[in-house]
Structures are given as C-alpha cells and as structure tokens.
Amino acid sequence: MMMARKQDVRIPTYNISVVGLSGTEKEKGQCGIGKSCLCNRFVRPSADEFHLDHTSVLSTSDFGGRVVNNDHFLYWGEVSRSLEDCVECKMHIVEQTEFIDDQTFQPHRSTALQPYIKRAAATKLASAEKLMYFCTDQLGLEQDFEQKQMPDGKLLIDGFLLGIDVSRGMNRNFDDQLKFVSNLYNQLAKTKKPIVVVLTKCDEGVERYIRDAHTFALSKKNLQVVETSARSNVNVDLAFSTLVQLIDKSRGKTKIIPYFEALKQQSQQIATAKDKYEWLVSRIVKNHNENWLSVSRKMQASPEYQDYVYLEGTQKAKKLFLQHIHRLKHEHIERRRKLYLAALPLAFEALIPNLDEIDHLSCIKAKKLLETKPEFLKWFVVLEETPWDATSHIDNMENERIPFDLMDTVPAEQLYEAHLEKLRNERKRAEMRRAFKENLETSPFITPGKPWEEARSFIMNEDFYQWLEESVYMDIYGKHQKQIIDKAKEEFQELLLEYSELFYELELDAKPSKEKMGVIQDVLGEEQRFKALQKLQAERDALILKHIHFVYHPTKETCPSCPACVDAKIEHLISSRFIRPSDRNQKNSLSDPNIDRINLVILGKDGLARELANEIRALCTNDDKYVIDGKMYELSLRPIEGNVRLPVNSFQTPTFQPHGCLCLYNSKESLSYVVESIEKSRESTLGRRDNHLVHLPLTLILVNKRGDTSGETLHSLIQQGQQIASKLQCVFLDPASAGIGYGRNINEKQISQVLKGLLDSKRNLNLVSSTASIKDLADVDLRIVMCLMCGDPFSADDILFPVLQSQTCKSSHCGSNNSVLLELPIGLHKKRIELSILSYHSSFSIRKSRLVHGYIVFYSAKRKASLAMLRAFLCEVQDIIPIQLVALTDGAIDVLDNDLSREQLTEGEEIAQEIDGRFTSIPCSQPQHKLEIFHPFFKDVVEKKNIVEATHMYDNVAEACSTTEEVFNSPRAGSPLCNSNLQDSEEDIEPSSYSLFREDTSLPSLSQDHSKLSMELEGNDGLSFIMSNFESKLNNTVPPPVKPKPPVHFEMTKGDLSYLDQGHRGDGQRKSVSSSPWLPQDGFDPSDYAEPMDAVVKPRNEEENIYSVPHDSTQGKIITIRNINKAQSNGSGNGSDSEMDTSSLERGRKVSIVSKPVLYRTRCTRLGRFASYRTSFSVGSDDELGPIRKKEEDQASQGYKGDNAVIPYETDEDPRRRNILRSLRRNTKKPKPKPRPSITKATWESNYFGVPLTTVVTPEKPIPIFIERCIEYIEATGLSTEGIYRVSGNKSEMESLQRQFDQDHNLDLAEKDFTVNTVAGAMKSFFSELPDPLVPYNMQIDLVEAHKINDREQKLHALKDVLKKFPKENHEVFKYVISHLNKVSHNNKVNLMTSENLSICFWPTLMRPDFSTMDALTATRTYQTIIELFIQQCPFFFYNRPISEPPGTMPSSPSAMASTVPFLTSTPVTSQPSPPQSPPPTPQSPMQPLLPSQLQAEHTL
Fold it and tell me: What would the DSSP string read from start to end of 220-279?
C-alpha cells in the first residue's frame, strides 16, 4: 500500500467550506465577520486582487446570476498550495453565507431554503454551471471577468473553517455571536469533518473577545484556533493548511503561530520589499519631472517592483513614487535656494559695498536701494509669478540670477544683517590694524630684530586681542620688522660708507684680522645706526664683511648700490651716445681681435654640451651670428664633454680664447664632472701667464631631465647647484625659470642674458686693465679722471650731459666703455683730453697704477658718505696732481636751510684750499652746466703736466731698479683690486730654466686636498670650516713665485713720456718700465728677471689667515674660512702689509736721489683722520704674524734696532685703543685645561650637569635619566623636525630646562611644552659640560689609528675592537646616543639630517679635541668621519649585524666620497698627523668646500 501511495502522482484535492455568523443586519450587525475577505486573501493573495467590500445585500437579478446562481454560498475557486512538507495540493474554497434582498432586507428565497446553521453544515453542495466569484463588481458583469465553473457542479466538503470575528463589530454582541458559533459548531460536529476555528479581524481584535474565543475552543476537544487578519494577510494560509493537515491524517500536526509573531514576520517582509522598491525608484528616477506611467513600465520586470506590488499593491507603489518625486523636487528647490543664498552675499558686496550707504537701512529699504544700482539685473531677476519656488523658474538652469522675491524671505534678511555686521567688523578691524601699525611705528620699544615675544607687552591691548587674530598682528609685526630691518640695514650700509676712510686706512684685504675687525666695531660702536642692529649681530657682522669684500674686491656686482652702480650707468650712456662706425672695427681689432666675437665654452657630460650647442646654433643666423641689443656678434661655441686635461678637450686653444663657460648638469654625477673640470682647468693655467681662466665667467645651469621635473631629486640638485654656484661666484639657472619647456635646456631669453653678462665681463676687463696703445697715448695730451659716487641723489645723465653733448666729444680709442675724448682750447692751443668717467671704487684701482694728470671729484652736499669717499680717495693721491672738487647741491635755498649741506660745502671748500685744489658747486636743479667751469682746472693740469709725468716715470724706474724684498704689493697698496679686472702679466708663475732659486712649485697632487680641511668650534657661532684652498684660488690671494730679474738700464727722453700709462697688474704690483709695449713680442723682457737680492726673502713663520664672509645658506650666520700654512721659502714672500711697508721704507732709503712728492693726506688736516690705524697695523696683525708675534714684541720691547726692526704698533696710540687691541689679540700659548663650564653655571650650581658621567649613572640605570628623557621626547615628537640638532635652541629655554630638571628629575618634557630644538640643544649641552668627553681621549688616538686602515671591512672591525675598550659607562651611553642618531638619520628625507650632517654637528660634542694642537686640527676631518661611520654602521658596531653597503654613486659621507669620486683625494686626512713642513704655495683642491654636504656648518654647538 505504501509503495502504491508513493507512486500515485495525483495531486490531492480538498474541498473546504468557510462558515460563520451570517444573516440579516439584526443578526450579524452592520458588517460581516470577514469570511469573504478571508477567502479572497487565500484564493487571490495579491494586494491588487484583494477587496475589502464584499456585500451580502443583492438584487434579485444579481442573486439569480450565474455567480450566485440562486444559492446561499459562493464558490471562490481552486487554489494550489505547497504545504510545510513541500507536498503540493489543491483546494476548492466555498463560503457559506446568507444573501439579503435589497428590497425586503430578508434572505433571498432559494430552491432549498433551510436555516443557515443546517445549510452551513452541509457536506454535499450542488449548483449547476455556478461560476467562480471574484468581487462584488463581477455581479451583473460576469462577461468582463474570467468565467470558471465549479467542477462538475457539485462538491463534497472535507472540512470546515469556523470564523469568529473578534473585532468590536457595530450593533453586534460578541456573546450572541459566540452562542451562534457554539450552535453552529454542534451542527458541524455531527458531520464528523475536521473543524478549525479562525479568529478574523485580529488586527482590530479585542483582547477579551480573543480570550473568550480561545476559551470556547478549549471547551471543545481537539479544536485548534488560528488568529488571522485578512486585511494584513496574517496567518491566512496557516488557517487553511492547518485544516488540510487535519483532513489528511497522514500529515504531521501544524505549528500554530501566534498572531503578533506572524504579524511581525509579515511586517518585516513588507519593510524589506519596501526598502528594495524605494532603492529601485531612487536608482531609476533622478528627475522630479518624471511621471508614474513611464516609470512603472520601466520597473515592470524588476523583482523589487513585483514583490512590493504583490504585498502592498500598485497604489501604494505609486504613492511611494510620488513621495520620491516630491522629495526630488524639494531637494532641487533647496539646492537652488542654497545657490541663490550663497550668491546673495556676493551680490551685496558688489552692489552695496559701502557701509556708509547702508549702515542704517532696513532690509526692505536696502531692497529698494538694490533696484537702483546699475548692475542690479546682472545679479537679480524679477519674476512675473511668485514665489519663485512654485514657478517654472526652478527648472531654468541657464539663468543663475537670484529671484528678487527671495529677498522677502527670512534667510535673505539674515544674510543682509550678516553683510552689515561684516562691513562693520571689517571697518573695526581696519581701524585696529591701523592703530596697531601706528603703535608699532611710534613705540620706542620696537627695534629691528626684536622678537615678538619681547615686543608683545609693549604694544598689545585688549582691543587688539579682541578684533585681530594672532596671525594678523603677527603678519603685521613681521612686515613692520622687515621694513625697519631693511631700513636699518640701508642706514648701516650708509654708515659704513661714511666711514670709508677707516676701511681704506686699515688696508683691509681678503683676510681681515680680529684686531682690525675689533677696531671697526670699536669706532662704529657708539653710532646709533650701529646699535640699531644690536639684536641682529650676525647680520650686522655679515654687512661689515660684505662691505670689506667690496673694499677689497670692488666691482659693479659687489657695489652697495648695485644695480645702480655709476660704472654701469656710464657704460650705458657712452655706448648709447657713440655708435662706433664699421670702419673702426679694423682699427679696434689691432688691440682686441675679439671685440665683436664671443667665444663660449659649453661644459657638460653625457651629451648635454652638444645638445645645448645645437639649440644655441639653431637660434643663430646662417653664418653663426647672434644679435644682442640690436648688434650682431660672431658666436663661436666649444662643447666639451671629456677630460679637460686632454688637448682635445682644453678650454682654450691657440685659435680659441674663451670669454665664458656654460656648465650644464642634470644629476649628481654630471655636477661632479663640472666641478672637477673647472678645478682641472684652473690648475692647468695657474702656472702660466695666460691664467685668465681662473677668472673665466661661469654660468651653472640645471637642465631638464626628461620625465623627472619634480620631487626630492630635483630639490636636492637645485640646492647643491646653488651652493656650488655661490662658491664659484657664478650665476645659477634652474628649471623653475620661466620659459623652459620639455625638450629645451635653456630658452632664448636666458641665452641672451648669459651672453650679455659675458660682454659685461669683457668690458670690465677693458675698463681698468686695458692699456692704450702707444699711438693712442701719443695722440692724447691729458688724461683726466672724473670720479662719481654711487648712490648719490643726482642723475649721472644730467652731470655728464654737457660733456657728452659737446661737439668735440668723441669715442675713446682705448676700447674702454667709460672714456671719451675731448678737444678743448686751453690757453693758446687745443688739447686732446681723454676723460675717464668712473665710480670712486673703480678709481681706486688706477690711483697709483696709471698716469693721470688730474682728477675731477664730485660729491653730494647732502650726503656724508659721498664726501667721506672723496676724502678716502684723496688721501692716497700725490699732492702734485691737480684736483677739482665739485659739490652737487639742491640749490641756494636748500643750502641755506640745510645744516648738513652747508657744513659739507664748507668742508669741501676747506679741503680744496688746503690741497691747493679748485672748488665749485653745481645745483642739481640746474645741472646743465658748461665745460667752461673746468677751464681753470684744465690750465692747472697743463701747467703740472710735465712734473706729473716725470714723477710717474720716476716711480716706475725706482720700482724697477729697487733691490728691496718686495715681491708683490698688498691689494691695498694702490687700491682695492678687482679680480675680474686682472690682466695677463709677464710676471705670473712660469717655470724657467734660468731661475736661480727655483723650487718645485708645480701643482701639488690632489691627494693632499684634505690636509688643510679641519673643523673647529668658533665661540657659539657654530661650526666653521677651515677651508681656504678654493677661496684662495677664487680671490687669487696666493702670491706667485718670483723669477730673478737682472739689472736694467734705462735711457729716456722727454718725448717718450706717453708710454707711462702702465696697466694694472694681476697681482697688485705696478708694471716696471721695462715691460712697456715698445719691446718686440719675442724680444728680451727685463721684467722676467730680478736682481739676486730682490729674490731672497726671509721665510715667514707659520701663519693663520682668516677670512670671514657672509654666506647665503647660513641664514645670516658667518662662515670663517681659515688657511693654515707656513710661509714659502722659495723667495716668493708672504704679501703681508708689514712687508710692503718695510720694503717701501727701504726703497725710500736706497733710492734717495730723487725726492718723491708727498700725499695729500700730509697737507690737509681734514684727510686721514684714521691715519693712526694705518701705522698701528703696519707690522701686521696677530692673525697675520701668527706664533712669532710674541717674539717680535719682545724684541721690540728690548729696543731691537736695525733696518729690519719691527716697530710695535702700540707706539703713538692712545691708551684706550691700545687696550682694545690687546684684548683682541689671540693668545698663542696653550691654555691650561679648565673644567667644562655649564651653560647655567653663572646662575646656579648644579649637582647633575657638569659632573663626571659615573656620578649620574648606576649599574641598574646605565643611561643618565636626563639623556633618556630627552631622546624619548625627541623620538616621540621631533624625528620629522627639519634641521634637528643643526638648528640651535633658545639658550634661555635650554637653561630653564636644565634648571627645572636639576630640581625635579621626574620632569615631564611634554607637559612643559619645550620645543624640540631646545631639548636637543640641552641634550648636547649635557655632553659638552662633562669634565671629560664621552669618547675618552686615549680612545680617540686608537680610533684615529684604526681609521687609517685602507681596507673598509678591516677598518670597521678595528674600530669595533677599540669600541670594546671603552669604559663601561661611556660605552653604554655612547651606544644609546649613536642608536638614536641612527634612527634620526633614517628620517633624513624629512628632517634633512643625514648621518654625515649629524656627525658634523655631534663629533665636537662627543670627542672635544684640543684645537690648540696642530694634530687635532689636521685630524678633525677624521673625527667627523669616525662618528659618521658609527652612525651609519650602528647595527654592526652595537647589535652584531652584518656590515651595511656603502652609499651609492654620490655618497653623502665624506669617506665614501673619497673612495668613489675620482677628483677627491684618496689619502685620508690622518695620514699626516702633523702639519706639513713646507706646504706648497698653491692652494689645494677646492672640491671639499664645494660639496653641498659640507655647507651644514652653521649649527651652534
């Protein structure tokens, strides 16, 4: 049987009858109990097919129709369902009811009229052709609905659903209903068919009714109850399936789910379907103008749409759609509203920006005011219909103007009020800013350089704090500080010019001694302009050093008035006044064959030189001509990419004399090649006469690297290029320059600028050093120099107008751009006058070296510096040379009203009277003077012409025949010497086979480059590099060896005086007569020889030369450059001031036949007011004399006499100045070691700082707690701080930190809010104050010896062995510190502190060598390299890790550089523990000071 049943595939069919209270309104109330809704929901569960209204009141025709078919039951149709055990079954649903006649309101009469209770319990139903019922609307319109008949016209009922309405039905008593149900149940029970009680309308159910219904069911045996709600579709299927399982006994018992639990599940299902449907709508509907018909078609196939419509119906779906559309529209309107409201403040600012106009207007009045504005319609649109958000304007996206009716809304009024408040606040803030600026300007406490923290209390008040943000008044204060600092610097520069006499009397050169620097500060110290920069001492010192550089090296570029230097103005005026005719080119070519030719070297490896050469040639004409400022020049290019020592790559050839060089690089390797090549070229020409390559103008260019125009690499290349350019003193161009694009290295504008610079350099060379030909000199009767002061408040155009506009004014023949020729009637004859118009600083160069018949010196009557420069110039002019003083005034009225002008005029007249010169004044308001005012002066010049020329000739003859020890003049012997004006000299270094005292003066090998590099502590100003090698080459301060000269005999006639203009010499010495141009080129040159006595010079003892220069990369700090060497023993001399003066004294005694004229300083009391300083320094300063100073002083004090006696500078000086100079003297004795002082020792005695290391550590805590706290704080907050350990901390904060820690060892650094630099500085100070350095002195010797090992791996192991010998306390602390520095170096991309930079900052603190010994000075580079190795190889030294690989192609460490870069020395510094006994006279390689990594020496230790 079981097998047969399983194989029976027929679907079981069950006939179910739904019964319950029915009848008239009196019996059932105004509404039924929900039998029809229950059947409807079960048969057709879709929400759209569910109907709540199923009436039982029918007309006779409807009752007789085929649907009702005169029966009191309805056939709902056939339903297929899958039960819980997944077995499908069919159910025919019948509803037993009682239809009421709509006329009589009594039950319709049917064929078998029986009471409802009996009829409902019938198990056999028959009705032929009875149709399936859908809804009330079907009655009478059966043809419009599906017509499905009841099968076979009869049904056998299998079970009953007994419905009980538990809602509060109108006009119905629940107890009566329950009584009716009880009777009905009794009737149904007789059929023995299964019965399930169904509680309907539970969504409106009454708790008591439900409870009573359950009580009724419990009173019946095995009667199950299902709580349902047809409206909410809850448990409807459960009721029918429960009955089916009761009918089929083989099925398991159904689990009855309580109503509220089932309702919750149904609600969750509906909510999920709703969420999915809303998501579908939001995805499809984006525009608020969409309609339901089109959107529903789009969603028809979507399961989200189908599920929701099935559960909730189409109307609810449409309702949600409409809600979404409304939301979209609202959002669209709000967006437009926000845009309008955002634009409204802009409209207010544009239309009503004036507070005075609207200050008291309400929003309504302001609205009327807006309509009157011309640009009203640009901002607003007036709509015909309002409000704007209810019109089609919301969809007019092209019109962004603001609807004017928006002004009537509250937000618009608020914005208007905000606009008013903003204008009022801006007015108040502007008033506060003005008041704050006035406070700054009027407050006497605000001085240049004063920090904001110090100035805050003097200028801030409550209003400033209330109305101004900190950034605002900080910005105002910063700008004000910049203004007053710039002004103070300008005034201080003017002060330096006002003391020009002092600077020239001190005979400053490239190595100013500390004594001379002390005198300068002593003389200027009481000046208010000096004190104004008291808080900017570093910048003030930098200005002084910059001015010294100008005095020693005067050019247009170093002129304080640059770019408004007089020389540049004069060149422009003369070049624009005279256009040289083409037929003069042939004549000019005799003296300078390259006058219209530019020879340019292009240096760059890897194709850079060839590529740029091709780009430049592309800009030239077909015949290689280049146009500059409208003039055609022949351009010759020489690209070089290989070894410049090879002839094929040499900078110059017999047919190519370079005028400039473009140096190209795009990587570290190409930059190294450029630096190496420049060094090689300069070394190759130092021993030759044509050594002008030393001063060849250079331009360093960083060219584009394809595919890499940004990032850290580019930034690093730019920095290194700038640093090397500053060392080379050349122009630097980088890719940030405008106009450079892909594929172009340098644009046409920049090429033109470079070529213009080369032309200027050529003109500078011809400005002073060019010597006129004999023919030109013979054609000139008088040579007069007109001197003008740079920066004077007058126009050079107006002053020179009468000269340049004169009919007799012509271009000079000598090729100078600063000279003109005049033909003027003087006396009975016309005279040809060569008038050179120069600045004072250019005139210094020719004051003693050139034949000048007279000087016309201009000065401004209202500028002290102008007259001071005039006095400094006249001091060294011989008293036989006529002088014309010209004072420039603002007119007679100004002279009367201005005390300064009156005093300067009076002083100028007195100077003219005392020197027997002439004086005149010219008002600048009427500068169109005439040349006639100088005619009396010209007559004086003619009268004194012969004696001036004879004296000049005598000077040259005396110098040529002198047997003194003088080798070369000091740069100040004649005047400041411009390196760019050096002329090729016949006495330059050149090995000669007939040299009597020749030594090996060839260039030293580069292996000794590092031997003179050292580092030392220079007070608190930071690390200073002792790197004079390259600077010496740049400044050409090292004297060349002298070749012996045989005696020369001269025969002169009066007519040969025109040759006496001798060009300026490259080494500062005037040419002898024997080297004048009349000698044949290949003939005998007497200047190549000297008398034997002339070549023998006492060797100088060891000296230390110091030259301090301001450096751009040190942010106002000063780099001190030292040259530690010994004097040369080859007869070259040392070039000190003392030698010159001694030599000149001897020369004066030996050549006493002719009496020389005196200088104007001896005739005029107003000249040479600082002359005492000249005599006091005549024997040289401490720095110049070195260790022998004390010996010479002792000899002088013992009355040592003789021709070579050294006169102590203390004589003829006032005691106050003598004391100052003594205090500035450097003590050459080695000082006794003293305990290391604490930075706070002056204020409190510390028990922690400055004590031995063993007292602050224990075996349990081997690291000092202070060091541990500092390093933890730095690693937590400061690893990314740029310049950590290089940038100094505030000293007062460091002192405060140490003081607080001394009182409380548990000090929390984070709480105290100390800066990272303060903590870093305090940590370094801890080691500086230890009585003994952290690296013991005896260990330092072993470390140096270990570092000498050439093999890298053996060297590191040797250093590690030495490290193990450290005392335990020192080893643990050293390990802790080095590990920390290693961690800091790993962040070098952020903090810019590589292991090399850290070693530069830390080695003096950790090792503290004794700088009084030469061993320590020569080993300083080794010390730094050792510390760098410890930092780099920290894992190897302390944690037994393998040795790490050395850096790559451009190593950052010096040691790596020495082994990888070919142009650096390969010999360690420490290979020479003591200084060389006879250092070569030529400076060593400049590579080391050029490396960018060596420029990190400004940190204060």
Answer: STT-EEEE-BTTTTBSHHHHHHHHHHHHSTTSPPPPPPPHHHHHHHHHHHHHHHHHHHHH
